[in-house]
Amino acid sequence: xxxxxxxxxxxxxxxxxxxxAVMLAIAIRxxxxxxxxxxxxxxxxxxxxxxxxxxxxxxxxxxxxxxDAYGLFFHxxxxxxxxxxxxxxxxxxxxxxNENEEIxxxxxxxxxxxxxxxxxxxxxxxxxxxxxxxISLFPMIAYSVRASRPLEAGIKYLMLSGLASSFLMFGMAxxxxxxxxxxxxxxxxxxAELGQKPLALAGxxxxxxxxxxxxxxxxxxxxxxxxxxxxxxxVTAFLATVSKASVFxxxxxxxxxxxxxxxxxxxxxxxxxxxxxxxxxxxxxxxQDSLKRLLAYSSIAHMGxxxxxxxxxxxxxxxxxxxxxxxYLAAYTLTSLAAFGAISAISDDARESDRLSDYTxxxxxxxxxxxxxxxxLLSLAGIPLTVGFVGKFYVFAAGVQAExxxxxxxxxxxxxxxxxYYLRVVLAMIRTVDTAFLPAQxxxxxxxxxxxxxxxxVLGAGLFPQTLIxxxxxxxxxxxxxxxxNRHSAP
Amino acid sequence: MELTLFYLSALVAIAAxxxxxxxxxxxxxxxxxxxSLLASGFIFYLLGAFFAAVLEVIIYAGAIIVLFVFVVMxxxxxxxxxxxxxxxxxxxxxxGPAALCAILFAExxxxxxxxxxxxxxxxxxSKTLGIALFGPYLLAVETASMLLLAGLVGAYHLGxxxxxxx
Lengths: 491, 166
Description:
The complex is a heterodimer of chains A (about 500) and B (about 170). Chain A has helices spanning about 5-30, 30-55, 70-90, 100-120, 125-140, 150-180, 185-190, 200-215, 225-230, 235-255, 265-285, 290-315, 320-345, 360-365, 365-380, 385-400, 405-430, 445-465, 465-475; strands spanning about 60, 65. With about 500 residues, chain A is an all-alpha fold. Chain A has one domain (about 5-475). Chain B has about 170 residues and is mainly alpha-helical. Helices cover about 75% and strands about 0% of the residues of chain B. Chain B contains seven helices and no strands. Chain B has helices spanning about 1-20, 25-45, 50-75, 80-90, 95-115, 125-135, 140-160. The longest helix of chain B has 26 residues, at about 50-75. The model of chain B has no long low-confidence stretch (mean pLDDT about 80). Chains A and B meet through helix 1, helix 4 and helix 5 of A and helix 7 of B.
């Protein structure tokens, strides 16, 4: 292994070592705090190795992984999100003092899966990364084994993601059977005549179905509300942000590298998925009175908005596409983490507070917590001064510029409906109730720290988005600077 | 000739899998599943992937199915178990899987008689496979180890006995 390959692999190596170290530490001595500090340390050291990997980027490592600026942007995002989730776990599982340290090992392995997924340049790595992510997520979802709801959610997730994985496998088999290659780059090389290769095209659609499942795009979204509601709140935060963002980042890399966007059918299907997701997500969210279910449906709608950005910006310019997706995913990750973090902060392992009635008058009981939740909901709704607005503006601008009017109309309608149900929660929070009977919410310092930082970021990036925009636009056109085989010259 | 053999074993695989899906009784379904796995193992063999064929038989038809059978047997603890197991072993249930296996066996004999002139595919030895796994696919192997670690930790957490209180 050359020194360059080693530098490019360093984040993965450090993260894997951290997972093993936490596991060994648990085996020697069970201490929740020790496991947490090791996890946080591992994540921070991994973050510190990113500049080292960036110095050699873009670089292929054994043809399976492509370490480039695009992937490293998401690596940083996911590592920070995992750090936030680790802090939330520290607050959430504080009351259970028996054997709940494993969550940190699983958190580290699933983060590793997300990192591998974003950097994969080969179908084998794509599958393995996705499986590492999924297999680690499923025990995390069912983590509170005493309650029935997390177990139910875990089983649902396991079954349906197993189904999605088999679709993915079958799709990959068809692609390989028709083209005889597995790396994205080589599939892309035969991308021009993809229209004349029905088997490979069918395979790509099967892969798209599996990805649609992971992103909970509309026809594949049925698991989302149950799993979101059943999972412990910090795990839901992870599931909603890192899991989805990594799959979307991969979607962009995969489908642009294999030139799927040259096929009109493909863009039509993606547009259709976007429209159905936005409408289904927003309309079904109207009916919910559980905040976690509401956010689950809202996440379906947000994946739809992202897909609009993907299609519209893809019609315009490739670099704009990467920038739009990177910015929107970062904004969505920050905002969702804040929203689920607030839910997590007022729940604990004994009781999930997710009914809307739990939030009635929250503003008068703990104003700061309510303010953070309010801010994140407004950001999800896309109200100006928040980072969610800038993200939605990107999607909207791309849609208008590409003149994809049906998509733009759906985004407008969806956002309109969205404002109604987000504001419903906000209104419930500021309703005056007799607070004498309700206990004041005590906030764990770890959760408080996470929420304060996230709220500052949501507001800060909303007021001064330039820093984040610069970071997002630094993610250059995917594999444009790749060391070999750049085949993006065709229009 | 190769093609005929392939289509025959593919038909056996499809028929066996179909029977797996429509059986009401788990153990009967497992019998057909073994046949289905043997048939796909034979297809690997015809393609020249001897090593994959052997793995298919040893790991899937051998280890994993035995595990399945054990779990099925252990789950049905209770007074009705003996009656139920008698019912599972009723004579006649082996006819279907045995017939399918006989077809596969006949194919195997035919192939062996023809003293191995393989037109289809190219022969992949275990050495080639090992070199591929620890050469270009090294990272995939390492990732699979992390996958197993995650699965192990998760299974441990979900499977450990619940303590009351503590």
